[in-house]
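=== RUN LOG ===
request id: a7f3
mode: sequence -> structure
chains: 1
length: 359
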Amino acid sequence: MDITVAVLDPAVDAPCAALADRFITGPLTDADAIAQLVEASRVTTYEIEHIDVASLRRLNEAGHHILPSPDVLAVVQDKLVQRELFAHAGLPGPRFVAFDPEDHSCLTRFGLPAVQKVRRGGYDGRGVAILRDAEQERIPGPSLLEELVDIRTELAVLVVRGIDGTTVSYDPVEMVFDPAANICTHVLAPAEIDAAMTREAVRVAEAAVEALGGVGVHGVELFLDSRDRILVNEIAPRPHNSGHYTIEACVTSQFEQHLRAVLGLPLGSCETLAAAAMINLLGAHGYRGATVVEGLERALALSGVSLHLYGKRTCVAGRKMGHITAVAADPTVAVERAQAAAAALIVRGEDRVERTVEA
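=== RESULT ===
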């Protein structure tokens, strides 16, 4: 699209450093670094939530274009405020309450089991704990309690909202999580739900984005529970892990859509061209250090498979290092292809971690 791109990232060897037209190194909480980026840009957007909102608000008030707005970012940075916004908009969601982990009586009043979520800073399963009894260790810090939903399927809907409020959405996808790490490992597109459930998921997702007032791509995470209710979990106001499959499987990828939206261009088609399965490539356990990729040729020899390595120079166990997308006319075939490619690939650190056992 012939767009000149400047990027701010804390790491000198960040993958984007070799690709950006201008690369700025600095913490995402550094007011000077943020100002340097924003003042050099016609439009500024973000792909992570852990940014200093006060700096963005000052720059926005000075006339710079920051999309989604800093106010949107402030809401999603605080899980309690986000929940309260959804509730005020009348959106279906889990029962919740503000929670001080030192307040034992709150657990009794709310009822267990429940899910504790820290209000700020949680990501990829961090900052979340399932509390099954009152004596269980809790995460310190301001939090909220949510009912433990009997989840049948975790869904996501990518909602794209333009500057003028025009909205388009992709078909719902199913997200599969590692139950121990609470991190998304697979995305299946489209989700195997009926037409009525698809319409409800899209309706709820679009209403959530409307309530938030965001511009750009939003990953709206939803619960489909055992009672066939669609419940809002949370929103990421940026390109989302659940939408990586759109590069190969849709007319317009989520990344192009985000650029179209924040630049005020017409939104693209969300039409799905093929069934797809996406598998996250996580750093292998038992290793750390410089990134090593094994099995590349075996994986790429498989039909319908596309590999995306993120260029992260250091690999630690469980870190997202890339993803595989497989497409096919039949969803079952897409899954089989993706699983075969993932089984052929290992992404690890070059150094083996010695296990120690304490006496």
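=== NOTES ===
The chain has a mean pLDDT of 95.
The chain is about 25% helix and 30% strand.
=== END ===
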